[in-house]
């Protein structure tokens, strides 16, 4: 049910990200929220650097999660499940899969400081909030200053043999 996404999946990934990101409306700072949350050109750029994996139901992608290895860490990027499929364990399965298939000693994920449910999701899966988030966001991410200010970084040691 989990498969690697390809260029031809761009339309489905676009739909999943922008539908799932509606959960941020009224939660994150108003100036950080817009629709589409990720415009096509931005997704096109992201697909060049991020490897996406997806969860399929009846041949249709309903959830996606990406990895971007940088230096000695792997970033979890763009974790989104269509609203009607959330809370059914799809995010957990995708995250477990990526954790198992990552060889770097640690994984990092960045999310909005106000996105408490997303933070709870990662915490439940062993990620902890890291104190040096400004340095990490500047070193491993390519995001604007306002996003650095309003984001947190969570990390986990990858204990795979
Ligand atoms: C976060 C997300 C990818 C998790 O996928 P999922 O398939 O719903 O997750 P699972 O079913 O494996 O786990 C459920 C947990 O996810 C979290 N969750 C559920 N719905 C959520 C939502 N709308 N937004 C954020 N987190 C959510 C909760 O921690 C939930 O645990 P709980 O039942 O104890 O409250 C998915 O809910 C989503 O797309 N949320 C909106 C966008 C988002 O916050 N993405 C993270 C960007 S880094």
Specify the CATH homologous superfamily: Gcn5-related N-acetyltransferase (GNAT)
* Ligands bound, unique: coenzyme A
Query: Spatial order of the strands in the main sheet?
Result: 1-2-3-4-5-7-6
Number of domains: 1
The shape is globular
Give the number of DSSP strands: 7
Average pLDDT score? 96
Outline the low-pLDDT stretches.
none
Distance between the termini: 25 Å
- At the first level of CATH, the class is Alpha Beta
Secondary-structure map:
Layout: E1 2-4, H1 10-20, H2 40-49, E2 51-57, E3 60-70, E4 73-81, H3 90-100, E5 106-112, H4 116-124, E6 128-129, H5 133-140, H6 145-149, E7 151-157
Parallel strand pairs: 4-5
Antiparallel strand pairs: 1-2, 2-3, 3-4, 5-7, 6-7
The structure holds coenzyme A.
Please outline what is shown here.
With 161 residues, the chain is an alpha+beta fold. It has helices spanning 10-20, 40-49, 90-100, 116-124, 133-140, 145-149; strands spanning 2-4, 51-57, 60-70, 73-81, 106-112, 128-129, 151-157.
Question: Can you describe this structure?
Answer:
- The protein is α+β, with helices and mostly antiparallel strands and 161 residues long.
- It has one domain: Gcn5-related N-acetyltransferase (GNAT) (Aminopeptidase, 3-Layer(aba) Sandwich), CATH 3.40.630.
- Helix content is 34%, strand content 29%.
- It contains 6 helices and 7 strands.
- Strands 1-2-3-4-5-7-6 form a 7-stranded mixed sheet, sandwiched between helices.
- The longest helix is centred in the first third of the chain and has 11 residues, at 10-20.
- The two termini are 25 Å apart.
- Coenzyme A (COA) binds at residues 20-21, 23, 63, 79-81, 86-92, 111, 115, 117-118, 120-121, 124.
